[in-house]
Amino acid sequence: MPPREGTYGLLAEFVTPGDLVRAAQQARKDGWRRLDCYTPYPVEEAAEAIGFHRNKVPLVTLIGGLIGLAAMFALETWVSVLAYPLNIGGRPLYSWPAFIVPAYEWTILFAGLSAAFGMLALNGLPALYHPLFNAHNFRDGATTDKFFLCLEALDPKFELVEARAYLESFQPVSVVEVDY
Amino acid sequence: MATSEVRDNPQLDSATGEYRVIAPGQTFRSVTEKITHIVLTSSTPLGWFALFGVGGALATLLLVAVTWLFLVGVGIWGITQPVAWGFAIINFVWWIGIGHAGTLISAILLLFKQSWRNSINRFAEAMTIFAVVCAGMFPLIHVGRPWLAYWMLPYPNTMDLWPQFRSPLLWDVFAVSTYATISVVFWYIGMVPDFGTMRDRSQSKIAQYFYGLASLGWRGSVRHWARYETASLLLAGLATPLVLSVHTVISFDFAVAVLPGWHTTIFPPYFVAGAIYSGFAMVLTLAIPLRKFYHLEGLVTERHIDNMGKVMLATGFIVAYGYGMEVFMAWYSASHWEAFMMWNRMFGPMGWSYWVLITCNLAIPLTTLWSRKLRTSIPYMFFISIVVNTGMWFERFVIVVTSLYRDFLPSSWGTYRATKWDYMTYVGTLGLFTALFLLFVRFLPMIPMSEIRMMLPAAKIKAKSTAEAGD
What we know:
The complex is a heterodimer. By secondary structure, chain A is an alpha+beta fold. Chain A has helices at residues 17-29, 44-49, 57-83, 96-122, 138-141, 160-168, and strands spanning 7-14, 35-38, 147-152, 174-179. Chain A folds into two domains: 7-54 and 130-179, no CATH class; 57-122, no CATH class. By secondary structure, chain B is mainly α. Chain B has a single domain, classed as Formate dehydrogenase/DMSO reductase domain (Formate dehydrogenase/DMSO reductase fold), CATH 1.20.1630. Chain B is globular, with a radius of gyration of 24 Å. The two termini of chain B are 27 Å apart.
């Protein structure tokens, strides 16, 4: 893939989460679809405002947990019944109540790892590079105390001058053009 | 509490009369700077080096003791027949128990939406991990030939041998290894956004590079945050049954045996409650000096100390019920062996250890923690935390040793005496724990910044009309 060039998007900076959410709601209402908000802590209202309501992390976690459960229970049964049958105090080889505990632990292990790594994978992380870090004001505030709205150039409505004027109408602290 | 006191003291919430969770006057930036400065400053406080020196020196004892153990064998310890489980198992259970409060704070209190936990959850989780490190070592070095400890895992091998899945000791392998893994993952995922902040706040290239790598490129997109919040809740929901199962499985190591003093169904809940009891004591032992040393009184307030005191009071009473039930069952079971075990535990040659346990776990904390004045008194809570940690160590000692040393046949009775190697190993893990914890405090953000920001008044989103009017 050739290196992308040109403009990634326009980044508007706000001081309060309320201003950001109102701007994002309006932008969504006005037909913008390729947009994202950047906040120093989870702002649920902002995610709702840009139309991000549900995610696949719970499904990934469920699948992971079921795999863990099935894998450990199958291993225990195979080991105890077929691979290495041992007579322990005359108990049946297939003594399933005793198998519950390790199977339970592995359910949690696999579900937990799936939740964590699934979340990262769905987020496209780890990422060593992102164009937003080229914006001079992004690193000063996005992870501390500033709230950003980014209109991306991939949006069909995106036209540099008009988009800038549109963002200025929300009275942000600044609007910065971000390059790839 | 008197109204005038509430009005005059800015640390108190005027609506409820409780101590505030976060002292007034904090902003997003002040919180961030306060927490990142501890790590990003180039001047390490002298006291840190002094404590690290002590921790490191004690950890060296562990190295010496374990080296000698590997060369000579477990015969250097005080374990013998009939007390074949000595300090190693006592310390294992004690350390794992301490870890449990960290998971309780980070997972269970998150599910219950107890937002006061936000200030203390990061270092409580760190405490969990370092406690599990210390705990996990004991069974490994206790197995006799520790270089073969991996035989406990099910893996295809040329001997065609497989582990025996009906044994609680094997369940322990899975419970503790899962607990360690999930705790580390939960802790790390929780730190990712804060690593992003550290990357952006640090001035030095090296710090930016390493925090940048650790942050995985976190940029705070609200889509990412939404998935992140879901994953955190799911991890909390998974860690909650996990933490309850870990000490339950450990109690099975005892309860599944037929020995009087071990063979009892009260063990699982009583072990879990005891674990949380001692864990909160350890959080207090760590939090009280930390907030003083790093001037974090605005973020870890009297409210936290007070609430932890309440949790200790509640879990302490569950533990007290467990002790009571043991005595009751010794009589009600009408079993000669049970009755003798209880009498011997209280009045036998090692009866002193039982009374130390009763004094430290019940007599001192459960009579005084009722008082709000004492619960918010910092020196007193520090004192109580040390008392309860001591008491809980003696609980493990009483369970392991006083059940074992005089069992069914008087001809096989014996005694237990720990050797200097036992003490060195135990004190060594305390040193290792201290050293690891100090490294954590120096290099990682010890208070979760993103969660604190959420709790600030500025994070409230106001409707357009009231926004202009102000708060």
